[in-house]
Amino acid sequence: MSARRLYSTSARFVTSTKPTNGFVGAIGNTPLIRINSLSKETGCNILGKAEFMNPGGSVKDRAALFVVEDAERKGLIKAGGTVIEGTAGNTGIGLAHVCRAKGYKCVIYMPNTQSQEKIDLLKMLGADVRPVPAVAFDNPENYNHQARRYAETLENAVWTNQFDNIANRQAHIETTGPEIWAQTGGKVDGFTCATGTAGTFAGTTRFLKEASDGRVKSFAADPPGSVIYSYIKSKGKEMIRGGSSITEGIGQGRITANLQPDIDLVDDALKIPDADTIAMLYRLLDEEGIYLGASSALNVVAAYEMAKILGPGKTVVTILCDGAYRYQSRLFSRKWLESKELVDAIPEHLQKYIVLA
């Protein structure tokens, strides 16, 4: 084979990107992936922001970096200090990485309902992990309140308060939104994703709305057990919970400070059943070779539904929050799927991927 032929076949792997400045320099600038099967089916361009390609493996790397650097700018933490957070997992993992890179201690309070993979990874990253019973936010023993109280007992320590610290939202106004806009050449018609802290959803929505003079539609995606769907549908008159979900880290029982400034920018909401989420998770693995967690799969279902609402020819973007590696002992376990009555939601030809007992 000639040298010329060698170059032409491998040219797409050549990049001019320079080395990054450590772990934190690698956060962001993730690819935007066209989901071919769903795009063909709907006649739209359905695109997923591949946040699982962040160095810490999730979209929460962005928020973790911004809340820590915000604390540094404000003088709330100095060298050798401690970062404390209440998190369902991915923000904690991002914080643990950032703390290691910056030389801080990291303490994570989290609901004891989270996957063992997440807990183990946090410990391997050197975090002090404190699982506590999962209770509602209005309970004083909620993991966020416990994190705050512990931070108050220490010197040179900060509770990063991801749910109501708008540095989280700012991360997506400054990075995720502009990246999506640039990667689509401004040709984006719809954006959708689920909310937990709502930093990703609100910040990206804010940027895309302003960049497009309001043209881009924004739909909130919501799992069972969350109030966001009812709040948006009722224009703030109702906050109805109901049911529970297999998803982790998304869904909410209140309007966070990250969401509040942008709630009026949201055009609609979609309620996504767990059965649709798990079916999409297996479908994406089989048809696209993309190995996603349940929250990411829910986002893709929402993008698929949004595309059908907006109609052919539109471009819809969502967030592929993280991969399935942090949840595989559940999502690919027949016993666990049976306990959630979800096996039958997976098409028979895809059940070959249920490889764990």
Structure overview:
Its main location: mitochondrion. Its cofactor is pyridoxal 5'-phosphate. Belongs to the cysteine synthase/cystathionine beta-synthase family. It catalyses: O-succinyl-L-serine + hydrogen sulfide = L-cysteine + succinate; O-acetyl-L-serine + hydrogen sulfide = L-cysteine + acetate. With 357 residues, the protein is of the alpha/beta class. It folds into 2 domains: 26-55 and 166-353, Rossmann fold, CATH 3.40.50; 60-159, Rossmann fold, CATH 3.40.50. The protein is built from 14 helices and 10 strands. The protein has helices at 3-10, 22-25, 36-42, 60-73, 90-102, 116-124, 143-152, 167-183, 199-211, 228-233, 274-288, 294-310, 328-331, 334-339, and strands spanning 32-34, 45-50, 82-86, 105-111, 128-132, 157-159, 190-194, 217-222, 268-271, 315-320. The strands form 2 sheets. It has a 6-stranded mixed β-sheet with strand order 1-2-10-7-8-9, sandwiched between helices. It has a 4-stranded parallel β-sheet with strand order 5-4-3-6, with helices on both faces. Helix 8 crosses helix 9.
Reconstruct the topology from this structure:
Elements: H1 3-10, H2 22-25, E1 32-34, H3 36-42, E2 45-50, H4 60-73, E3 82-86, H5 90-102, E4 105-111, H6 116-124, E5 128-132, H7 143-152, E6 157-159, H8 167-183, E7 190-194, H9 199-211, E8 217-222, H10 228-233, E9 268-271, H11 274-288, H12 294-310, E10 315-320, H13 328-331, H14 334-339
Parallel strand pairs: 2-10, 3-4, 3-6, 4-5, 7-8, 7-10, 8-9
Antiparallel strand pairs: 1-2
Helix pairs in contact: 4-5, 4-8, 8-9, 11-12
